[in-house]
Amino acid sequence: MDWSKAKNILIIAFIVTNVFLVITIERNLFQEPNLPLPIDKTVQGVIHVMEEKDIHIKTDIPRTMTPMPVLEVEYETYEDEEIARLAYKEKDRDNGPKGQFEVVNDKILIYAADGSSKVGVRIDSKKAQDRAEGFLKYYGFMKNDVDYWRTDFDGESYNVVFKQRYKGTFLEDSYMNIQVTELGDIQYFERVWLRPINLGDSKNEIMPATKALLKAIEKLNEIEGPKTIIDVGVGYRFDPPSMQNAKSGTAFPVWRIALEEGTMIFIDAYENH
């Protein structure tokens, strides 16, 4: 048998197999939600499809989900008394250069140091995280709704990121970013935080994680090179059309797909939203 023809036949067969696999998964997830494939086979099928697209999954994929309501939220704001309290504590802080607090649009709290140390011992990412957590504790921001998220190093300083937690899941897009120099000084701090008000009266079905991953492929393909997914989870996201003007609103359930390099992709989680 001619090897060139045989090779072409194998390639065509491989493509047909992959197309059939995608169609089968999508038919079960999108068109026939009441007749799903066995869970493990569905998960393995989605993993295979994504691997073929150079998208690698290095985390557990949730197998089951319970219905969720919406969540009403409002932005935390900062009155003059709060800024005065922070300024007073800043004067008493005994380590590192001093700085100033300011508020933007009533809801973005910013701290910027007036300078930085010129000499000292260089720290690693774990020490940078410790310094950041110490800063938050000192000013009263390290509460039980705070989750450490990640630390990135740009060659000169560490950016330590914290995110908000609500009843065991995440609440986006609230955050605290802290820039820590190589010598351990807090150089910059930014905080946007949400205040949960109440949950909605009714709960709606949440789409499977596998379906959310398939929906995310188009967005993932916009990112060049291989992609590695390190976290897949469902929670809440408040994403108003204009953050500058927003004061309160509704946070909806979303799937959050986090990549190793820091990008996050959000997929609406309601099955029929």
What does this structure look like?
It is globular, with a radius of gyration of 23 Å. With 273 residues, the chain is α+β, with helices and mostly antiparallel strands. A hairpin with a 3-residue loop joins strand 3 and strand 4. The protein has five helices and twelve strands. The longest helix has 29 residues, at 3-31. Helix 1 packs across helix 2 (39-52) and helix 2 (39-52) runs parallel beside helix 5 (209-221). It has helices at residues 3-31, 39-52, 80-92, 125-138, 209-221, and strands at 55-57, 71-75, 99-104, 108-113, 146-153, 157-166, 169-181, 186-192, 194-199, 227-237, 248-259, 264-268. Strands 1, 2, 3, 4, 5, 6, 7, 8, 9, 10, 11 and 12 form a twelve-stranded mixed β-sheet that branches. It has two domains: 39-71 and 200-268, Lipocalin; 77-192, YycH protein, domain 2 (TATA-Binding Protein), CATH 3.30.310.160. Keywords: Membrane, Transmembrane, Transmembrane helix. Pfam families: YycI. This is Regulatory protein YycI of two-component signal transduction system YycFG.
Task: Please render the helix and strand layout as text.
Blueprint: H1 3-31, H2 39-52, E1 55-57, E2 71-75, H3 80-92, E3 99-104, E4 108-113, H4 125-138, E5 146-153, E6 157-166, E7 169-181, E8 186-192, E9 194-199, H5 209-221, E10 227-237, E11 248-259, E12 264-268
Parallel strand pairs: 1-10, 7-10
Antiparallel strand pairs: 2-9, 2-11, 3-4, 4-8, 5-6, 6-7, 7-8, 10-11, 11-12
Helix pairs in contact: 1-2, 2-5
List the keywords.
Lipocalin; TATA-Binding Protein; 2 domains; 12-stranded mixed β-sheet; 5 helices; 30% helix; 34% strand
